């Protein structure tokens, strides 16, 4: 059975935004879906998030898929650096390598290691056969062009949702449709 692991964003939870809706839709299609609560969500730390994702994932294989939102995308990329087995693929929703317009110095301090610690994209590509970025042209955290270009180094293609902000609606059909394309 195909397994889908959905990783929420910074300050998020499995019960927010489009995550519960997507979990339900994928379960209707007979996917095993795991949406873990990530640790210390208000002050996410790379190592603890990657370790948690590793424990949740278990032994990945070509039937293992990931969907991340925001910092959840970073977590998936950093997890993929640590494995040697190819996975099925990934969807990156509002994924980023850089952020703009953070509210204060505290947020900047939390974001700094995520922005400044490099990700070995060649290693990621070696275990990630296909992926899709879903991003909005008006994400309030900006860096649209930079983030899109950086994701282009590892992904099949990008889907730009006009005026969708940080993509936090309670339902987002584009994520489901892109996922179903990815698994074909």
In terms of DSSP E residues, the strand content is 15-25%
User: Percent helix among the residues?
Assistant: 25-40%
Q: Radius of gyration, Cα only, in angstroms?
A: 15 Å
CATH class equals Alpha Beta
How far the N terminus sits from the C terminus, by CA atoms, comes to 14 Å
Question: By CATH's scheme, which homologous superfamily applies?
Answer: Alpha/Beta hydrolase fold, catalytic domain
Structural class: alpha/beta
Which second-level CATH architecture applies? 3-Layer(aba) Sandwich
CATH third-level topology: Rossmann fold
Shape: globular
Number of helices: 7
Number of strands: 6
Total of domains: 1
Q: Low-confidence runs (pLDDT<50, min 5 residues)? A: none
Could you characterize what this model shows?
The chain is α/β, with parallel strands linked by helices and 184 residues long. It has a single domain, classed as Alpha/Beta hydrolase fold, catalytic domain (Rossmann fold, 3-Layer(aba) Sandwich), CATH 3.40.50.1820. Helices cover 38% and strands 16% of the residues. The chain has seven helices and six strands. The chain has a six-stranded parallel beta sheet with strand order 2-1-3-4-5-6, with helices on both faces. β3, α3 and β4 form a beta-alpha-beta unit. α2 crosses α3. The longest helix is centred in the N-terminal third of the chain and has 12 residues.
Write a concise synopsis of the structure shown.
The protein is α/β, with parallel strands linked by helices and 184 residues long.
How is the secondary structure organized here?
Elements: E1 3-7, H1 19-28, E2 32-34, H2 46-57, E3 64-69, H3 71-80, E4 89-93, H4 105-116, H5 121-127, E5 131-136, H6 144-151, E6 157-161, H7 173-183
Parallel strand pairs: 1-2, 1-3, 3-4, 4-5, 5-6
Helix pairs in contact: 2-3
């Amino acid at each position: 059975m195909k397994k889908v692991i959905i990783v929420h964003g910074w300050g998020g939870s499995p019960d927010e935004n489009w995550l519960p809706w997507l979990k339900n839709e994928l379960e209707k299609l007979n996917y095993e879906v795991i949406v873990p609560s990530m640790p210390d969500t208000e002050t996410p730390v790379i190592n603890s998030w990657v370790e948690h994702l590793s424990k949740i994932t278990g032994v990945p294989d070509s039937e293992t898929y990931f969907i991340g939102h925001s910092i959840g995308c970073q977590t998936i990329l950093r997890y993929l650096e640590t494995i040697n087995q190819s996975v099925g693929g990934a969807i990156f929703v509002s994924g980023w390598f850089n952020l703009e317009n953070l509210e204060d110095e505290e947020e900047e301090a939390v974001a700094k290691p995520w922005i400044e610690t490099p990700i070995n994209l060649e290693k990621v590509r070696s275990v990630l056969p296909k992926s899709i970025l879903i991003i909005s042209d008006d994400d309030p955290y900006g860096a649209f062009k930079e983030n899109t270009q950086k994701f282009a180094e590892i992904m099949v293609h990008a889907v730009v949702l006009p005026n969708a902000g940080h993509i936090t609606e309670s339902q987002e059909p584009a994520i489901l449709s892109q996922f179903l394309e990815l698994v074909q």
